[in-house]
């Protein structure tokens, strides 16, 4: 399998230099000159790793990393001319996987790229199918029957998985309790309120930091439930 690397830097010479080294190692390379262009590339191309400069116009590397981590868990290596520990810590805290300061040894960068890809493949984070649903850090893969929250696997019962698949497939739409029951259990939703409520509570306990103040699985009082877009 040929892996695709996205190189994001506002300095063309640096992008081109990294591009040459990566292609010599057999990688496919995409380029972007700022964070906004990088996010557009991610929408239209499969990418397995990102090399990302910190100081860029329009959308810097820190903000770009934060946006990427809302939906994707692919490895990110941050590049920066800054060597202060605070910059390194901030980059890693918001989701970067590695950090290199400029100027850097291109051979060391290639070694780190290969190391991150090995970890990525080992943990299976690039094995989600094309049908996988990505939403604000949640990833539901119908074919693999897998679910992760910010990269952490969550074990659902078959019913819990079907509820989440229904709600995530129609993110933002409110489903009544009866409709959830009829779609998931495949039978009329008579007296379904307690049954659905119990499953919703269990799902929240698994995916929410604070189940009593949920970020993802919301109740719309008097109507039903939805997954927040």
Q: Which class best fits the helix and strand makeup? A: alpha/beta
How many DSSP helices? 8
Please state how the strands of the largest beta sheet are arranged side by side. Answer: 2-1-3-4-5
Which radius of gyration do the C-alpha atoms yield?
A: 21 Å
CATH names the topology of the largest domain as Rossmann fold
Name of the CATH superfamily of the largest domain:
Response regulator
Our measurement of the CA-to-CA distance between the termini, rounded to an integer number of angstroms, reads: 33 Å
String of helices and strands: EHEHEHEHEHEEEEHEHHEE
Mind describing the biggest β-sheet? 5 strands, parallel
- Low-pLDDT parts are none
State mean pLDDT (0 to 100 scale). 87
Corresponding CATH architecture of the largest domain: 3-Layer(aba) Sandwich
